[in-house]
Design brief:
Length: 320
């Protein structure tokens, strides 16, 4: 396959990946919420498109911003959207071979996802209102508790594999044998990334987030609602890539006639993997993190996963 054809294939795969993530982000957020409701005994239909309808209603409302810090509240949602979209392009979902995968640095993707969540909190901090500012500060404190766990989780793949890109990491895991002591530590690192997304927003309980955005309406609020779902799905996808890299297709540069069928199968596997991980997130949020100390619990569990990953990595090198 020529360089032009490879480039066109990469652009097509990138477009499919981005469209899939954008369309599925509110659906997966609603699925987590429905799973939690079922686990707590609340009956009701899944209504998987209800999150999209909520975003559409918010978009159609007249725009409103707090007078204090209006410039910040006007830019923050859209800045967070750009950061989230760039991060999503760095995290493969169902296939490798996307355009620009050589620059899909793991640390860059993690920083962008983490930063997008932090930028959203600027809306509450800049509103000049006591309640909104307090809610935003609570979310920021919870995020800061996750920093040590994220540092450890990012360090594990950097120490375990020769490359630093997510695509190179997946390729290496596909070629490496489990006896080499690689997949176990990387799976634990993936679990740490998923735990980062197990917050009140991702689990369908966004009272703190809603309180932070009380003085925001219109397209700005709709963008914030969408970005929080997209960031949560990106964390789950990143963790899923480390937990089950075999579900990701590596395109044949020779131009296989069965590539389209392989892509459809890969998309189906990605959907099954994502819904399964959404169910795990709902279980964690319902049974493990049901108390008010969600931020401390998920930070502690994520750090524990990262530390165990490092222990397993060095134990495998010592005794493997």
């Amino acid at each position: 396959m020529g360089a032009l054809a490879v480039g066109m294939q990469g652009l097509l795969l990138s477009g499919m990946h981005l469209a899939l993530m954008v369309l599925m982000a509110p659906v997966c957020a609603r699925f987590i919420q429905w799973c939690r409701q079922r686990m707590t005994g609340v009956a009701g239909p899944p209504a998987l498109l209800s999150r999209w309808r909520m975003i559409a209603r918010a978009w159609s409302c007249p725009g409103m911003r707090a007078a204090s810090g209006a410039r910040v509240t006007a830019l923050a949602p859209w800045g967070a959207l750009v950061m989230a979209l760039v991060a999503v392009l760095l995290v493969p979902s169902f296939s490798l071979g996307m355009a620009g995968e050589e620059g899909s640095d793991l640390l860059t993707g993690v920083v962008l996802l983490f930063g997008a969540g932090g930028v959203l909190c600027l809306v509450g901090l800049a509103s000049g209102q006591g309640r909104e500012g307090r809610m935003a500060a609570m979310l920021l404190v919870g995020m800061m508790l996750l920093v040590p766990a994220l540092v450890v989780a990012v360090a594990v793949p950097e120490m375990a594999t020769p490359g630093s890109t997510v695509a190179g990491l997946v390729r290496f895991m596909r070629m490496a044998q489990d006896s080499a002591g690689i997949r176990g530590p990387l799976a634990l690192a993936g679990g740490a990334f998923i735990l980062v997304g197990v917050d009140r927003v991702a689990a369908g309980s966004g009272r703190t987030f809603d309180g932070m955005t009380d003085n925001l309406a219109g397209p700005d609020r709709a963008v914030m609602l969408f970005v929080r779902d997209l960031v949560a799905l990106a964390w789950i996808t990143l963790g899923g890539d480390l937990l089950w890299p075999d579900a990701i297709v590596i395109p044949d540069t020779a131009g296989s006639p069965h590539l389209f069928v392989a892509m459809l199968v890969a998309i189906a596997l990605w959907g099954a993997r994502t819904l399964g991980l959404c169910g795990v997130v709902a279980c964690l949020r319902t049974f493990v993190m049901a108390s008010g100390q969600v931020a401390r619990l998920r930070a502690g569990l994520a750090l524990l996963c990262g530390c165990l990953a490092i222990v397993l990595l060095f134990a495998g090198r010592e005794f493997g």
